[in-house]
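General statements about sequence and structure are easier to judge against a single worked case. No coordinates are needed to read the tokens, only the vocabulary itself. The sequence in question and its structure tokens are set out directly beneath this paragraph.
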Amino acid sequence: MSRPVGFVGLGIMGAGMAGNLLKAEHEVVVWNRTASRAEPLVEQGATSAVTPSAVAEQCDVVFVCVSDTPDVEAVLFGENGLAAGLRKGSLVVDCSTVSPSATRAWAERLAEAGISFVDAPVSGGSEGAKNGTLSIMVGGAADDVERARPYLEAMGKTITHLGEVGTGQICKLVNQILVVVNMLAVSEALVFAKAGGLDLEKTLTAVTGGAAGSWMLANRGPQVIARDWRPGFRLDLQQKDLRLVLEAADSLGVPALATSTVFHLYRTLEREGLGAEGNHALVKALERLSGFEAAQD
């Protein structure tokens, strides 16, 4: 009889991803630092464990989706962490967005105990997590990736194996550069349109289907003009990812001019206490500079 799959971390992304494993009729054991977040999944049929190690004791494949590099470190190797409960031959799949160098170090450490590791960060926002349409960027040995694939297919529509452990995280940072620079363009364009006296709904209709169209424009542009700051991805988590981008860019010796600009704009918004808003709140920084608010009249 096959053992259940584990899922650790039930935040804005993890809850939807674990829910799609249940919809695909996988048996799922879950854990979250705030235990109450597991309750909706338990109602859907999941089993809740009291610690990450308790998840590992019941599962041969465990997914992790938490906020930052130190969080993954704690879940893996902290008190009652996964490593304390995993058996030889187990597989950890980390869907968090974290440091590529730390990812490689964790894989090496787990390999010493006969445990495999795959990094599989995701993109697509809370909508993609809920609908099972995420883009998943995967790094790891081919056999390990194929072992994880049936679960990944329950959570995402585009699953790309980039190469060895760590390449998934590098690709996710590429994704984040594109996301934030695109959002900067959306923000600048909407503020410009407002200053020029355009109807913003009609402007979005005019440009979304053309060469300027993008996912961020189509999905976040309407939120901006409606002043809807509910997060598909929180601003403070986006800022954490940009720190990872800038650290990696520095180590690689490549320029990241636009990313750096967005990082500093987000910093001004964090200081205003806006970290829990969606990453599209970037527009507020440009609104403050220009004196125009990109709101539909």
